[in-house]
Amino acid sequence: MPYREQPMDLGAAPVRYPAPDWTEIGTWTRVWVPDDETVGWAIIQGDERIAWISGSDPESLGYVIRLQIDELLREGAKDGTPVPAAWAEILRRTLHTTPQQAYLPALLADIQAEWSPGG
Questions:
Q1: How, if at all, do strands 49-54 and 100-103 pair?
Q2: DSSP, residue by residue, 43-73
Q3: Shortest CA distance to 105 belongs to which of 21, 39, 48?
Q4: Are residues 61 and 35 in contact, defined by beta-carbon separation less than 8 angstroms?
Q5: What crossing angle do the helices spanning 83-93 and 63-79 adopt, rounded to 10°?
């Protein structure tokens, strides 16, 4: 392939909700399944931004929940579902901790520590 001065334009990509500003404060909840297995973390920032962080693998008890949330966010973005409605649906469908605010860099550090080997 010949060298290009600029990257090629992205041809097509699925519609997505805007991600949070990871340097600011956001509201988060830990989604879990029985035996206290963490499935992932749902994060909302205002009425415009939402994210889902999950590392559940197919062997995990919570993998089905991960797939449901992935699909909910994919379809919600495609259908124009407002972010607060998508957040409410995640909370309605899952076992989760009480949503709370946090400085997102600190939350990401905690998530990395929890899912790192030995964490």
A1: unpaired
A2: EEETTTEEEEEE---TTSTTHHHHHHHHHHH
A3: 21
A4: yes
A5: 160
**pLDDT tens by residue, 10-53:** 566 788 999 999 999 999 999 999 987 899 999 999 999 999 99
The pLDDT assigned to 25 comes to 98
Q: What is the DSSP letter of 117?
A: T
Question: Residue 66 corresponds to which tokens in the numbers above?
Answer: 């991960």
Per-residue pLDDT tens over the stretch 52-88: 999 889 999 999 999 999 999 999 999 999 999 999 9
Query: What Cα–Cα distance (Å) separates residue 83 from each residue in 27, 66, 76, 77, 96?
Result: 13, 18, 8, 8, 18
Say if residues 26 and 43 touch (Cβ distance below 8 Å). Answer: yes
